[in-house]
């Protein structure tokens, strides 16, 4: 079944830097990631989430569709 083979080969390598993620989005479209969530995530407001306290809740999946800054939010 050739169509199945095409679907399976649609994997991208791990992207370890912001620049690599931006290039991949530009060339191939959105990328997906996931991270572990703890109870302190419920109080997360902005910036990069970092676990500081609380118990394990599960995982969180994210689709990254672009990059850059939003001037309205950076003030």
Question: What characteristic shape results from the CA principal axes?
Answer: globular
Provide the structure class.
alpha+beta
Euclidean distance between termini CA atoms: 53 Å
Largest sheet report:
2 strands, antiparallel
Query: Strand arrangement, largest sheet?
Result: 1-2
Q: Order of SSEs, N→C? A: HHEE
Q: Which residues sit in consecutive blocks of at least 5 with pLDDT less than 50?
A: 1-9
Strand content: 15-25%
Q: Taking all residues together, what is the mean pLDDT?
A: 81
Helix content: 10-25%
Number of helices: 2
- The total count of strands amounts to 2
Radius of gyration: 16 Å
Description:
The chain is 24% helix and 23% strand. The chain has helices at residues 2-8, 18-28; strands at residues 31-38, 56-64. It has a two-stranded antiparallel ribbon with strand order 1-2. The termini are far apart. The model is unreliable at 1-9 (pLDDT under 50). With 75 residues, it is an alpha+beta fold.
Quick tags:
disordered N terminus, 2 strands, 2 helices, 75 residues, 23% strand, alpha+beta, two-stranded antiparallel ribbon
Q: Topology, pairings included?
A:
Blueprint: H1 2-8, H2 18-28, E1 31-38, E2 56-64
Give a nutshell description of this structure.
The protein has 75 residues and is of the alpha+beta class.
